[in-house]
Fold:
Amino acid sequence: MLSLLPVRPSFLLLCLVASGAMLNARPNIVLLVADDLGYAELGCQGNTDIPTPHIDSIAESGARFTDAYVTAPFCSASRAGFITGRYQTRFGYEFNPTGAHNEDPDAGLPVGERTLGDQLTNAGYTTALIGKWHLGGTARYHPQRRGFDTFYGFLHEGHYFVPPPYRGVTTMLRRLTLPNGMSKGRWISKDGSTIYTAHMGNNEPDYDANNPILRSGQPVEETQYLTDALTREAVNFIDDHKDRPFFLYLSYNAVHSPLQGADRYMEKFAHIGDVHRRIFAAMLANLDDSIGTVLKKIKDTGLHDNTLIVFFSDNGGPTRELTSSNAPLRGEKGQIYEGGLRIPFLMSWPGIIPASMIYSKPVSTLDLFPTACAAAGTKPPKKKYDGVNLLPFLTGKSDEDPHRHLFWRIGDRHALRKGDWKILRQRNMPWSLYNLENDIGETKDLANTMPSQAGDLIRLWETENAGMIDPVWTRKRKK
Structure:
């Protein structure tokens, strides 16, 4: 006699997956990354000067994280962290190759590290990187050798938004010495389209030198404003792959320098008196409209309810360079104060993540890797991963802190946050201690008044640091 036994839901789910019945249930995953965007520059973060309704809509349909961090206060090392889910200091990737150093054969994401692109490709996803890479400028580090089926963008740290002679934009470039021989102030061309500024005391980097826009491995001549061109490529990718699960890493170079604002956006912000801030506003509004175009394509193709969308900045804003505001945080890009490490971070997945949610416990861009893997139904390899799957914390299945602590080491800049407490030291100076709940601006150093608290955190930092390795690229360059 045949007995009827109850079928466990988990077994039924496994059977459906194995049969392919749930192929279309796996969500698309879209990472929208801004470059050098300050903590306070979105409408949902408090900016009232530059409307960002499209980016804000991600927060409205999902979660906004108040205490989200990157693993380094500059581009390349930060990207190495979130694309692998591991502190980049675990594999010796600690610094920021710029200019010709991008082509140093040792300056790239180590080939033994698995990227999120690798992981999702092996899970059946079609993958694309559109925009900035900055994880190695030589052949073995090429994005299509690191888990991405499609690549359109550039390999180095930055790129001009239009090619010379910079038609249709207002351009502000750094100069050590101005055409009038001065080393202070600004010089403006007769037509007002070009501005040289000496306020930073250096020249604009040679971003485009040996750094072409590439389609796969072939250089292309791109004449469209680069933010718009990357959006065009992203929309085409979504159109071409809407019948299968895809991972789109859309890595804008806005609002990174060079400062180039398109004419139509410059006119929109004509009321802003300082042209420096006006160009930044034009670049950010252009970025926001571009993200709106991508979000509309996702909606129009019927994919909105089955797409995990994440927006974040790769580090804090460089205030002096771009006018980026990190208020109320102290510091900027390159520093380990909150202004260099804490970022705008938004995540939406309709029906899974509650709308208009504000999440205030510390999280990290390291969490993107395991969160995306969980959404896609694939487990990360058995390796030391530092990120956590955020979905249980966002859906109410866990009310614990996602991280016991967060760790930073960037050369001689060190920091650790545990709960509301943060220690940091810069360039071999003594450790400082701050309580971020009471002092988000890091103005009151409590290390001398609370030595026991500081000592506990210093020992914790040292324990974590023991599991890291020396910077590989720097060590090999010295030999």
